[in-house]
Amino acid sequence: MIVADAKVSLVLTGTGDVLEPENGVMGIGSGGNYALASARALLHGPLDAEAIVRRSLDIAADICVFTNRSITIETLKSA
Question: What is the 3-state secondary structure (H, E, C) of the chain?
Fold first, then answer.
């Protein structure tokens, strides 16, 4: 569970541990690591869509042992 007020954000685990997030952002649930990676990527200033994806996947690789850094990004250009 995530609890927050205007000054502090914390994660309460199922075992009762209280965790303070790194970089002030959190993600929980089945897609929590992906949400966390994207949120951390957005902390690094204004980025275009491809840069957000690239940074998010790099961060996800730091978070999850099943994610690697061998990625292919395909960009669609509008006509």
Answer: CEEECCCCEEEECCCCCEECCHHHCCCCCCCHHHHHHHHHHHCCCCCCHHHHHHHHHHHHHHHCCCCCCCCCCCCCCCC
